[in-house]
Specification:
Elements: H1 2-24, E1 32-37, E2 43-47, H2 60-70, E3 76-78, H3 81-84, E4 98-100, H4 101-109, H5 114-125, H6 128-142, H7 164-174, H8 178-184, E5 188-190, E6 206-208, H9 213-216, E7 220-228, E8 232-241, E9 244-253, H10 257-272, E10 273-279, E11 284-288, E12 297-301, E13 305-310, E14 317-323, E15 336-344, E16 349-357, H11 365-398
Antiparallel strand pairs: 1-2, 1-9, 3-4, 5-6, 7-8, 8-9, 10-13, 11-12, 12-16, 14-15, 15-16
């Protein structure tokens, strides 16, 4: 009887732990959602993360990063008629008005101004289609290969779509830019519009950030909201706590639920996972010989690397060293020589870190002498062949054909 009760109690604990684990997963209203570690790109939660979705104004994350990489903040942008007449969210830019790129970026990311988006696109690339080409090219380079962008604002277009995963990759990339980070974390900004025609009323110069999560969530540092009827409520959110940074993406949510979705995802990431450092930057991994090299050299890691594991779970992984096969002396200090790959017990790759040469490797004396000797032999043979050819040419010139 005691054994029966013991078995029943163990089963109850197992079922309870499984139910508790399931209950700890965030419940989101948004049709698609994803939570990513901003430092290493690890996905901690996903829901329909690879489904094509309308991004609405979260598109402007990509617009801003392209502008930052293709222009200076102090460049003066002239507003065109097309930019001044664009539909949707705007700050009322006027045709012919001139603003700095910096002020337009604040209007783009805080007030979600579509007129600023068009003005930026035309200034950077000459036209909206040309700028869209830059957007798609940049998205591919970042790794967002399931996306297609047709405009810089996010206005509805059947060929303008992304996924929660791609949008997280784009936001992760953008947040590595210090200027972008500063802008999207700013709650209020005053810009200058000296060319605005004030007879039409006071121009909008005070910009409030549409992202209410900045005041609702501890540690929130960005990123961008979005809304259209077709896309629903969208939000890309970023937060920092205890030297950790997470990115949450919610697409096609409803009303204020987009913020509760973001809070649920971020809370889950910060509370349910523990970062475990798998390797330290500069750590010696192995020693190797280079063909033609004078001596062995150490391979060291180029960066630190960590993975988030659920609290209480013992990390289980293997390390695999993959060296380059095209290495030849000489090598310079810090040259990439291979990769250190981390593989989970089930065979899934957790990530990889570049391996670098700890010091320079010179050509060995033996190879240097053999190279010199081979070069000398080739030179002598070439000289001898040239002498023979010269003699034959002189002989042909000295004797007519009928005397040869």
């Amino acid at each position: 009887m005691r054994r029966l009760w013991t078995t029943f109690f163990c089963c109850f604990l197992f079922l309870f732990s499984q139910a508790a684990q399931a209950a700890s997963l965030p419940q989101t209203l948004g049709e698609a959602a994803l939570l990513m570690d901003a430092r290493n790109g690890q996905v901690l939660y996903q829901k329909n993360a690879s489904s094509p979705m309308y991004p609405a104004s979260t598109t402007k994350i990509l617009t801003a990063i392209i502008a930052l990489e293709h222009s200076r903040l102090d460049e003066v942008v002239t507003v065109s008629r097309e930019a001044a007449r664009v539909e949707g969210s705007a700050i009322g830019l006027q045709e012919g008005e001139r603003l700095t790129m910096e002020d337009l970026l604040y209007a783009l990311l805080l007030a979600s101004a579509n007129d600023a988006a068009i003005a930026i696109a035309e200034h950077v690339a000459g036209s909206v289609p040309a700028f869209a080409a830059l957007m798609n090219e940049k998205a591919r380079l970042i790794g967002a290969r399931a996306s297609s962008f047709q405009n810089p604002s996010g206005l509805p277009d059947p060929q303008h779509y992304t996924t929660a995963y791609d949008l997280a990759l784009i936001a992760r990339y953008a947040m590595q830019n210090p200027t972008f980070r500063t802008i999207v974390s700013t709650r209020l900004k005053q810009i200058r519009r000296p060319d605005a025609d004030r007879s039409k009323g006071p121009p909008q110069e005070h910009l409030w950030n549409h992202n209410r999560l900045l005041s609702l969530y501890e540690g929130a540092i960005g990123v961008k909201t979005g809304y259209t009827v077709e896309a629903g409520q969208c939000l890309v959110a970023a937060a920092q706590r205890d030297n950790r940074e997470l990115i949450a993406v919610i697409l096609n949510s409803q009303g204020a639920a987009v913020y509760s979705d973001a809070r649920a995802l971020l809370d889950y990431g910060f509370s349910a996972f523990e970062p475990v450092k798998l390797v330290e930057k500069g750590e010696k991994v192995s020693s190797f010989s280079v063909p033609g090299g004078a001596e062995e050299v150490e391979a060291i890691t180029g960066n630190s690397f960590y993975i988030n594991f659920p609290f209480g779970e013992k990390p289980s992984f293997e390390r695999k060293i993959v060296m380059r096969h095209d290495l030849r002396a000489p090598l310079s200090t810090g040259q990439k020589v291979g990769e250190l790959v981390f593989i989970q017990a089930g065979g899934e790759e957790l990530g990889r870190v570049e391996l670098l040469s700890a010091r320079a490797v010179e050509i060995s004396a033996t190879r240097r002498w053999s190279t010199w000797l081979l070069g000398t032999i080739v030179f002598i043979v070439a000289l001898r062949l040239r002498t023979i050819m010269v003699r034959r040419r002189r002989r042909r010139l000295r004797y007519p054909p009928y005397l040869r």
